[in-house]
Amino acid sequence: MTGKAARPTSAARRAALEVGDAAQFSAEVIRGTARIRPYAVEVMRQATILARGSVMIVLALVFAFGLVLGIESSYGARLVGAPSLAALGPALGGLRELTPYAFGYMMAAKVSTGYVAEIGTMRITEELDALDVMGLDTPVYVCTTRLLAVWIILPFIYGVAVVVGFLGAYIAVVLQIGQVSAGGYLTLFWQFQSGPDFLFSIFKGLLMGTYVVLVGVWYGFRVRGGPVEVGTATARAMVVNLVGIHLIGVLTSQVFWGGSARLPIGG
């Protein structure tokens, strides 16, 4: 009985220690931005790699999600007898939820897991130890440079992704299904959006992007063992990313739009 009770306690203690270590490591990586100047070239190199390897994948996913949202919004509006409101779904769901989540999913699957595999391989092949011997600030050189690269490139990618998602929904509603005219679609579409909504959406996407990068570099940096452990860390990072993305999504939606939906309806 004692042994059975001890196992959950031990597992909970390990989980708590991992969360604490991840939080401390993330804080160290963020504080490393103050010491980034000697590694500015590496920051730009990582930003270039991110732009070349991830932009088209993210945009393709957001475009597909925009098409799906436009189709569902069109037929949903038709079912309730209000086909002219087909733009309502893309206007609200696209900006506030679909684009941030698509962005977070793609960053988790493509960028974060890639960082786990890359940095984890550097750990098991003793490349990180070699950087320490060379006198480099290894956490800053390996982790902070990647975080800063994401901060540099993500606002531009996200801005384009919002436009691409809008375009996908427009094509589905106006050109494919022909539910409403272009003028009717755009009029309603812009009525249900505001400047703060765009800023909140961008912040939501950047928060998700920052989270998944910190998860990726932590799991990669803390790998011990061999290739099997790198694979295990990559899988665990993906699970943690998905949980965190949804928590961030729920909390930010509640903070930004829970108290006031800011919709031009009602008295």
Helix tally equals 8
Total individual domains:
1
Rounded to an integer in angstroms, the radius of gyration calculated over CA atoms is: 22 Å
User: Any low-confidence stretches, pLDDT <50, length ≥5?
Assistant: none
- Structural class comes to mainly alpha
Give the topology:
Blueprint: H1 2-31, H2 40-79, H3 88-124, H4 127-133, H5 138-177, H6 182-191, H7 195-221, H8 227-258
Helix pairs in contact: 1-7, 2-3, 2-5, 3-5, 3-7, 3-8, 5-7, 7-8
Question: Describe it for me?
Answer:
The protein has 267 residues and is mainly α. It has one domain. Helices cover 84% and strands 0% of the residues.
Summarize, please:
The chain has 267 residues and is mostly helical. The chain contains 8 helices and no strands.
List keywords for this structure.
8 helices, mainly alpha, 267 residues
